[in-house]
Amino acid sequence: MKEKISGKPFEILLAEDNHGDVRLIEETLKKNKVSINLHVMKDGIEALSFLKRKGKHSNALHPDLVLLDLHLPKKEGLEVLKEIKRDPDLKRIPVIILTTSGAEEDVLKSYQLHGNCYITKPINLDQYVTVLKSIENFWLTIVKLPPR
User: Fold this and answer.
1) What's the whole-number mean pLDDT along residues 41-46?
2) Residue 45 and residue 124: Cα distance in Å, rounded?
3) Does 112 reside within a domain?
4) 50: which residues sit within 8 A by CB, 6+ positions away?
5) Is residue 145 part of a domain?
6) What is the number of domains present in the chain?
7) Residue 56 pLDDT more than 90?
8) C-alpha angle 40/43/49, rounded to 5°?
9) Cα gap 87→101, rounded to integer Å
10) Cα three-residue angle 30-58-25, rounded to 5 degrees
11) Among 68, 52, 69, 71, which Cα is nearest to 60's?
12) What end-to-end distance do the CA atoms of the chain give, in Å?
């Protein structure tokens, strides 16, 4: 398995409330060549607690990458993105918007808030798996991510 140069696995925060999507992402990333620790948070408040190391997440590592759904309970994904990018300790973490919304205003707002890329989840299972493998290949193999 490919690991970061430091020899440690990649830490990925997945903010996603859809159990089916979580399962598909977990299974797809597990099958690939990159060593990953996937941390799943089911709502926006929990995702921010993880990122800010609060409560039960006090020992959490800052993730190397965030996969963020826009339609989260308790706190919408755009609000989570806004808080990440305005926090000096978090703003350098790449955030990939991975959502069902293809609305132009969501795309525009995500980039205005400094999201690093915007991907609309495909409905077709094979296409979804291809997208996930592309994310892994690009962000964890090709891109040099900032240190934690």
Assistant:
1) 97
2) 30
3) yes
4) 13, 39, 41, 57, 60
5) no
6) 1
7) yes
8) 75
9) 25
10) 20
11) 52
12) 20
Which residue type is seen at 74?
K
Q: What is the DSSP string of the chain?
A: -B--TTSPPEEEEEE---HHHHHHHHHHHHTSSB-EEEEEESSHHHHHHHHTT-GGGTTPPPPSEEEE-S--SSS-HHHHHHHHHHSTTTTTS-EEEEES---HHHHHHHHHTT-SEEEEPPSSHHHHHHHHHHHHHIIIIIS-PPP-
User: In this predicted model, what pLDDT tens digit does every residue of 101-148 receive, in sequence order?
Assistant: 999 999 999 999 999 999 999 999 999 999 999 999 899 889 888 887
Within a domain: 113 = yes
Flag whether 38 is in a domain: yes
In this structure, are residues 99 and 14 in contact, taking their beta carbons and an 8 Å threshold?
no
Backbone angles phi, psi at 10, to 5 degrees: -70, 135
Question: What average pLDDT does range 72-79 have in this prediction?
Answer: 96
- Other beta carbons within 10 Å of 39: 18
Radius of gyration of the chain (CA): 14
Residue 7's pLDDT is what?
66
